[in-house]
């Protein structure tokens, strides 16, 4: 909507420019979990008639607003609190998603909207007309915030500092409005002054430079003063307060690390690596780190593992580890590197609009990838790219596409760039979390594609250019119009690319950025001996959801006897077949070495290959320069050659996956050879383990020798003298450590002819556990032991049940008894000597669930429920909850489902709440096409309520609830509900009525007549039957009418907004309420709408605020009259309003009143008794002390 | 075996005691008593027994004093004299008319002196030792047999033992914990076979999850010290001790060392680290009172 034309720069959606903001938090009460403070925004009007200022604010209780020291009226209206109204019996997700998207955009700062609307006092109008500075001062408090700020207060004795109580800001995308009023947009930059007064034992960490710390007069508290002189978006402001231990980075003194008490040794070790990441980024970007300081804070109960904000990052404390821990080390380092990459792109450089998000995510993900390549090597990097590619491909094929650059024109199709999805992609806050994750994944992959096209050198030059532009702009302290240079846009980025590289990447952008979907190739070939030509056939599937057609170059690599040759094919509309001439004749002389792609020459045993063909193997798109899935057919020996001799790890992994389909001794040999080869990348070897297990199972009747991998494991890890005993642990060689961990897990998947895990294998694993000895090891073996338990779980096969006997100890399978012994001992030992991150408990819980599921142990969720309680380590809780979710599904337990949903609503940890919904979505108790006793009306109502109003404090959670609702019930009305009360829905947008789409599937399927229901809402009004177009009598659901009207009104206003953005609107509800309020008789209170008078704070009630839609702050008759006039006039785009047209306005208002009344009539009476005090009656009735006069 | 050896001795003792009682009783009858309390008889019996025992003991001493092993009559006489008994009167007393003759107690079996364990053949005297000399003691009392248990150097056995020992300890410990505390069970009908120590939430769950356990710290110390031995760096030791409580990871220790050595080398440059979080907190400005 606010898309700029061309590259002329950024056009703010707001009628003012914010230049500076002060955030002052005077008091933080950990006991009550409350915050008191004020903000002061310095703004410069950019239009003469600015008289309303819209800001974002959620949850905050606003006490007082002053503009240039004059009391100002304000209205608080947050339609996202309750998306659809209570009365609405609509239960279809389509409807909800539309309403939710409308609600979000009604407060979207990128559209110039906000929850908080402040009226500029009339005394200042003249001042404003001269475009002079305004200072907006807002006093607010926050009580028990449910989102945005998270308090962690351990329940124990001692002062808050002793207890390790802390608080930090968190959220999904722009969520700063949850903890202070601001312009919560990534595109509104300003400088900041941040002040936090905290207990003397606490530290407040925030953005920018800590200027000074001053004691309060009683010396019991201190105030941290921060200055952030680099223009920064409010969404990148963060805060963490707690009794942190402070560590100044020994390598870079301007970097400071913070952690919770007692964890300092871990912090030292964990962050000891960070300076290398700094060096790397600064070197490749040839740019200094933009901020003068950097802070890392490690906190408990993190919302996400890594959150990047201006000059600071907030990490989960669970990333900390000691030097003994192997597995966590690379993961934590990756998190640190990710956070740092986002400092450059995401924090320092911000985005113009949501549709430019992909550039930031793409660049930060891309440079993070470069860091990966440098740190972990090319193999790891290529493996990671392959993994990400597989993920995005799988997701897009499943859901129908991820669109990086959604453009929302003004046209009719604006809502449908992603009609396949059950949520709107117009706003970050309506996105499913999984979609957003995949979005980020695709963004960096596309950046890599651009790199492939223009070379890395140019790529880095572009980044450098963006950064230097931004840093020049950021140093222009008083030229705020320059600051928009710090915002990146898609067009700006593309222009930079074409300037720097001189290359046209438009087709690439069109394919992957402006369009969703991936490419699906099917390849097969034949060798034509006569012509010595390889006839390659490449088909595409571009009709399935999530796919698109690819036209363009495609690289194919053919390994022949004489070497490896690259061919670039041109994929065109209709050409499926491609003839590729071969370089070599089929071999007679078998002695010669065969040159590989990397120049290496190797001896191969060529006896397996087809004597007539010189082809060893063929690869399609080996560089992954298309976002694609390739299904390629070649013979088993070719895959085997590819596995053995191709040096690219991606090719090796592909070959391994393909070999699963060829369970032959030759495949077995190839896999075993790879397993033994120490030069081979460890991840490939790990993958080979699992493939070998699968092959062994397919070959079970002809398998000779000991179980797969056993002798290999013995040779590698067991004592020479006593091969049944494993060596004492020594994990110095990480590659073999990972292999040692994985092999038993894969071996446990082996099955004999009876489809049982061979006794030999089970005993082998039990022996590994028995003889495990870590006393001499430098590293912890907790992950290894955990994987041994996983191996035990893998060995479990379904119990043979004799006529459904009850599972008791007496009929316990002896093997299972052995397994249970181990699990019991491990689980109990964890209580005495807990392992790092309780990995062993996690594995034990999983194993117990496996035993339950296979019928060896009675299925019972009680154990898991106790481990899922608050107070256990988060990994343990997740594992336990996963088991409960699984139980809910398998046993169809309504009770457990309720227990889970209660936890979604009440658990103190946001991540757990999110994760439960996520797990329920991934492993749902039922799906929309399934009959289930769990699916009933109460559940529908419950979930509806959850997403409608129960999760308004956390966007991620709400989207999670939407995902779950979609999985359970689909897009249309849930089938377990009784038929809707009406068969007709008015489509006001297109001015026509249609049969209620929610009931169509039902009426067709059940052959039932839509019921003529009585309208039980009590708003039977005028025009219901005028549109009847079917034989039944329909009534119109006034809710539908009302809400969709609101929705449409909003959109009309968005679209037809006059060029003066100051006149933009609230949504329709707001407007209609204004009209109804003209009648003084409607002045009765209704929950949710509050009259607020500055001096009557008592009237302000937080409960009302949270459930309500608007709060009114009429100060005096005069300013408010203008206020409502504007709302009026804005409906008429042609109307240019002035400040002193009261009489005109009144007339208008009457007109409108009339217009609306015939629609809303009685309903509005009970619904919107909201009044503006400019109406003659109300002006008198409200006892407002006139401040302005 | 021991039970059978003592029973005849006990029998003998009882028989003797009974005989002495008869003797006392007859002497009393002789002295004109019609009856006697059991306690009195017992006392007299005891006295008599003591007296006779003393004669025997003393006589043995005299006999051994003269380097003999068998007492002779003269030894008894000397003893009696020494005990103040007029020996002259003894023959007359023995021949008194009214004396009662008591039949000898029916000793069924002689007390078997428990035979010392004979291990092997006693060595015969060599020719230069006269035959009256006592025999050689049993060979086991002087023969040295070099006995040694093979130190268990078999790796397999060692590992086996360590493993089962650890397992036993762990099982016993966890069972104990389970017995003494709250438990959970996987089987509703059975709570003892696989007792699980009940899950108890922590107030600060991340601490136990992240910090190395005591055992691991101990292990780290061990590996540390063994590695430090190689370095022959004795100066590390006190430093190392001081960091014990804060988690003695080797790298941390080494970082610390670096830091201290750094700061030590350029002592005065400590304040080069100008980090705002290390600066002292300022005193509030004195507000002018209105």
From TrEMBL, chain B:
Keywords tagged on the record: Cytoplasm, Developmental protein, Differentiation, Initiation factor, Nucleus, Protein biosynthesis, Transcription, Transcription regulation
Protein name (database record): Transcription initiation factor TFIID subunit 8
Gene Ontology CC: one annotated term: cytoplasm
Region (Disordered): 218-290
Family: Belongs to the TAF8 family.
Domain Bromodomain associated, chain residue ranges per copy: 12-89
GO MF term (any one): protein heterodimerization activity
Top-rank lineage group of the source organism: Eukaryota
Main location: cytoplasm
Biased composition (Polar residues): 254-266
Subcellular location: Cytoplasm; Nucleus
PANTHER family referenced in this protein's UniProt entry, alphabetically: TRANSCRIPTION INITIATION FACTOR TFIID SUBUNIT 8
Keyword Cytoplasm recorded: yes
Protein's GO biological process: cell differentiation; transcription initiation at RNA polymerase II promoter
Biased composition (Basic residues): 280-290
Stored Pfam families: Bromo_TP, TAF8_C
Sequence ranges of Acidic residues compositional bias: 219-233
């Amino acid at each position: 909507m606010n898309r700029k034309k061309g590259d002329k720069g950024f056009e703010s959606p707001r009628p003012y420019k914010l230049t500076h903001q002060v955030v002052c938090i005077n008091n933080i009460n950990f006991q009550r979990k409350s915050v008191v403070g004020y903000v002061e925004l310095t703004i410069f009007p950019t239009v003469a008639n600015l008289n309303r200022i819209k800001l974002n604010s959620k949850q905050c209780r606003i006490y007082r607003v002053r503009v240039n020291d004059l009391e100002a009226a304000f209205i608080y209206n947050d339609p996202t609190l309750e998306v659809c109204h209570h009365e609405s019996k609509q239960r279809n997700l389509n409807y909800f998603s539309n309403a939710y998207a409308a609600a979000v955009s009604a407060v979207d700062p990128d559209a110039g909207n906000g929850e908080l609307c402040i009226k500029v006092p009339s005394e200042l109008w003249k001042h404003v007309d001269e475009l002079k500075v305004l200072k907006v001062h807002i006093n607010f408090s926050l009580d028990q915030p449910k989102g945005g700020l998270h308090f962690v207060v351990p329940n124990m004795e001692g002062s808050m500092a002793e207890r390790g109580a802390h608080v930090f800001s968190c959220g999904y995308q722009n969520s700063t409005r949850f903890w202070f009023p601001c312009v919560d947009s990534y595109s509104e930059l300003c400088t900041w002054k941040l002040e936090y007064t905290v207990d003397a034992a606490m530290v407040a960490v925030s953005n920018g430079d800590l200027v000074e710390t001053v004691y309060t007069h009683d010396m019991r508290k201190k105030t941290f003063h921060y200055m952030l002189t680099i223009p920064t978006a409010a969404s990148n402001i963060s805060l963490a307060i707690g009794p942190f231990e402070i560590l100044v980075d020994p390598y870079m003194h301007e970097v400071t690390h913070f952690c919770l008490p007692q964890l300092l040794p871990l912090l030292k070790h964990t962050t000891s690596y960070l300076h290398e990441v700094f060096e790397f980024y600064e070197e490749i970007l040839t740019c200094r780190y933009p901020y003068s300081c950097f802070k890392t804070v490690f906190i408990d109960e993190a919302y996400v593992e890594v959150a990047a904000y201006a000059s600071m990052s907030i990490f989960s404390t669970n990333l900390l580890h000691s030097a003994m821990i192997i597995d966590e080390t690379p993961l934590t380092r990756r998190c640190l590197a990710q956070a740092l990459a986002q400092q450059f792109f995401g924090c320092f450089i911000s985005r113009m609009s949501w549709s430019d998000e992909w550039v930031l995510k793409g660049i930060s993900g891309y440079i993070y990838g470069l860091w990966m390549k440098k740190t972990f090597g090319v193999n790891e990097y290529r493996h990671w790219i392959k993994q990400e590619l597989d993920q995005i491909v799988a997701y897009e094929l499943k859901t129908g596409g991820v669109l990086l650059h959604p453009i929302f024109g003004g046209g009719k199709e604006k809502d449908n760039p992603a009609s396949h999805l059950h949520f709107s992609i117009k706003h970050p806050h309506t996105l499913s979390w999984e979609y957003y994750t995949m979005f980020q994944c695709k963004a960096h992959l596309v950046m890599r594609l651009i790199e492939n096209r223009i070379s890395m050198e140019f790529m880095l030059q572009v980044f450098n250019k963006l950064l230097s532009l931004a840093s020049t702009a950021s140093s222009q302290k008083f030229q705020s119009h320059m600051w928009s240079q710090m915002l990146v846009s898609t067009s700006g980025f593309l222009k930079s690319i074409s300037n720097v590289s001189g290359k046209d990447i438009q087709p690439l952008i069109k394919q992957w950025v402006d369009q969703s979907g991936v490419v699906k190739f099917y390849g097969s070939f034949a060798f034509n001996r006569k012509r010595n030509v390889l006839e390659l056939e490449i088909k595409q599937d571009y009709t399935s959801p999530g796919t698109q057609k690819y036209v363009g170059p495609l690289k194919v690599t053919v390994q022949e006897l004489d070497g490896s040759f690259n061919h670039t094919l041109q994929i065109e509309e209709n050409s499926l077949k491609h003839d590729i001439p071969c370089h070599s004749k089929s071999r007679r002389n078998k002695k010669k070495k065969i040159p590989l792609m990397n120049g290496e020459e190797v001896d191969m045993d060529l006896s397996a290959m087809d004597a007539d063909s010189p082809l060893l193997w063929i690869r399609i798109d080996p560089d992954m320069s298309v976002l694609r899935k390739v299904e390629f057919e070649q013979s088993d020996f070719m895959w085997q050659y590819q596995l053995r001799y191709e040096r690219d790890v991606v090719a090796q992994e592909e070959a391994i996956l393909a070999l699963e389909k060829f369970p032959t001794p030759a495949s077995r040999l190839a896999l075993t050879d790879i397993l033994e080869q120490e030069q081979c990348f460890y991840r490939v070897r790990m993958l080979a383990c699992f493939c070998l297990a699968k092959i062994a199972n397919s070959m079970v009747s002809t398998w000779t020798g000991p179980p797969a991998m056993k002798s290999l494991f013995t040779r590698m890890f067991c004592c020479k003298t006593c091969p049944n005993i494993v060596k004492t642990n020594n994990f110095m060689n990480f590659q073999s450590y990972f292999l040692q961990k994985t092999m038993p897990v894969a071996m446990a998947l082996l099955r004999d002819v009876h489809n049982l895990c061979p006794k030999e294998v089970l005993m082998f694993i039990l022996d590994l556990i028995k003889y495990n000895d870590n006393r001499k090891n430098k590293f912890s073996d907790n992950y290894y032991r955990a994987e041994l338990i996983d191996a035990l779980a893998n060995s479990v096969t379904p119990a043979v049940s004799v006529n459904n006997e009850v599972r008791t100890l007496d009929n316990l399978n002896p093997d299972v008894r052995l397994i249970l012994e181990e699990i019991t001992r491990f689980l109990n030992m964890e209580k005495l000597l807990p392992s790092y991150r309780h990995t062993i408990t996690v594995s034990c819980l999983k194993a117990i669930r496996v035993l339950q599921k296979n019928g060896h142990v009675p299925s019972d969720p009680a154990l898991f429920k106790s481990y899922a309680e608050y107070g256990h380590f988060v990994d343990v809780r997740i594992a336990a909850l996963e088991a409960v979710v699984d139980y809910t599904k398998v046993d169809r337990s309504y009770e457990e489902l309720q227990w889970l949903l209660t936890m979604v609503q009440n658990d103190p940890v946001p991540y757990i709440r999110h994760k439960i919904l996520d797990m329920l979505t991934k492993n749902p108790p039922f799906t929309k096409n399934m009959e289930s006793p769990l699916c009933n009306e109460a559940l529908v109502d419950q979930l509806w309520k959850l997403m409608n109003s129960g999760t308004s404090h956390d966007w991620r959670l709400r989207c999670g609830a939407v995902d779950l609702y979609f999985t359970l019930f689909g897009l249309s009305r849930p089938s377990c509900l009784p038929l809707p009360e009406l068969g007709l829905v008015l489509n006001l947008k297109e001015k026509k009525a249609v049969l209620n789409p929610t009931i169509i599937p039902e009426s067709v399927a059940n052959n039932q007549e839509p019921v003529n229901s009585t309208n039980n809402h009590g708003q039977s009004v005028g025009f219901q039957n005028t549109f009847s177009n079917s034989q039944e009598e329909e009534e119109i659901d006034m809710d539908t009418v009302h809400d969709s009207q609101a929705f449409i009104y909003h959109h009309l206003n968005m679209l037809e907004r006059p060029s003066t953005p100051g006149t933009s609107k609230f949504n329709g509800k707001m407007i209609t309420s204004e009209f109804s309020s003209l009648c003084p008789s409607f002045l009765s209170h209704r929950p949710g709408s509050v009259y607020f008078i500055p001096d009557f704070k008592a009237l302000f009630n937080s409960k009302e605020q949270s459930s309500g839609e608007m709060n009114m702050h009429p100060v005096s008759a005069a300013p408010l009259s203008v206020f409502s006039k504007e709302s009026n006039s804005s409906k008429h785009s042609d109307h240019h309003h002035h400040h002193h047209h009261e009489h005109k306005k009144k007339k208008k208002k009457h007109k409108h009143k009339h217009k609306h009344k015939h629609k809303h009539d009685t309903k509005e009476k009970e619904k919107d008794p909201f009044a503006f005090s400019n109406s003659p009656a109300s002006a008198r009735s409200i006892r407002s002390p006139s401040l302005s006069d | 075996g021991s039970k059978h050896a003592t029973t005849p001795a006990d029998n003998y003792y009882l028989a003797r005691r009974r005989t002495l009682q008869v003797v006392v009783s007859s002497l009393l009858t002789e002295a004109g008593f019609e009856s006697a309390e059991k306690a009195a008889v017992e006392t007299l019996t005891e006295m008599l027994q003591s007296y006779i025992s003393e004669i025997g003991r003393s006589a043995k001493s005299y006999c051994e004093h003269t380097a003999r092993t068998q007492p002779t009559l003269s030894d008894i006489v000397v003893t009696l004299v020494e005990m103040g008994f007029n020996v002259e009167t003894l023959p007359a007393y023995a021949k008194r008319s009214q004396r009662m003759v008591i039949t000898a107690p029916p000793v069924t079996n002689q007390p078997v002196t428990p035979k010392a364990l004979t291990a092997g053949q006693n060595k015969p005297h060599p020719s230069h030792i006269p035959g009256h000399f006592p025999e050689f003691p049993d060979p086991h009392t002087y023969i040295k047999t070099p006995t040694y248990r093979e130190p268990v150097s078999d790796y397999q056995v060692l590992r086996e033992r360590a493993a089962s020992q650890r397992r036993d300890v762990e099982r016993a410990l966890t069972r104990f914990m389970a017995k003494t505390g709250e438990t959970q069970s996987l089987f509703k009908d059975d709570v003892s076979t696989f007792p699980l120590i009940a899950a108890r939430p922590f107030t600060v769950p991340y601490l136990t999850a992240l910090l190395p356990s005591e055992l691991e710290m101990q292990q780290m110390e061990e590996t540390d010290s063994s590695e430090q031995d190689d370095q022959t760096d004795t100066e590390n030791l006190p430093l190392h001790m001081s960091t014990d409580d804060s988690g003695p990871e080797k790298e941390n220790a080494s970082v610390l060392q670096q830091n201290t050595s750094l700061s030590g080398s350029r002592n005065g440059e400590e304040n080069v680290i100008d980090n705002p979080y290390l600066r002292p907190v300022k005193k509030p400005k004195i507000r002018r009172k209105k």
